[in-house]
Design brief:
The chain is an all-alpha fold. It is built from three helices and no strands.
Length: 119
């Protein structure tokens, strides 16, 4: 029996060496089931909070991008509206209409007997 004990001690010396950290005989402290459940719930809560924060940040970035795109679209539409108003004013101008009437339709200004004044 003493010989087996010597072999065990020699085997411990070979496997563990002189490192006393691993050779301690004190058992690893055990955590109760309730404490383990609390730790798991807390970790799950932290993971959930992290995912929620990430999701909300992605939503913020997406909405910011949409707002920026909408603002750019609005500026383009304002510019187009301004250009169309200018074009409409040019198309309705009296000088243009008179030149079209004389050139394309062979019209002339009315003579005095062709004008009827309404009261």
């Amino acid at each position: 029996m003493a010989r087996n004990n010597v072999r065990t001690i020699a085997l411990d010396k070979v496997l563990l060496g002189d490192n006393r950290r691993f050779a301690s005989a004190s058992p690893v402290p055990q955590i109760g089931a309730a404490k383990m459940m609390v730790i798991i719930v807390l970790l799950a809560g932290l993971v959930f909070a992290g995912l929620l924060f990430t999701w909300s940040h992605l939503q913020y970035l997406e909405l910011s991008s949409q707002i920026s795109q909408t603002y750019n679209d609005q500026k383009e539409l304002h510019n187009l509206n301004r250009k169309l108003r200018i074009e409409l004013m040019n198309l309705k101008s009296l000088a243009r209409l008179e030149s079209l009437a004389t050139e394309n339709f062979s019209m002339a200004p009315p003579e005095s007997h062709q004008v009827v004044n309404l009261r």
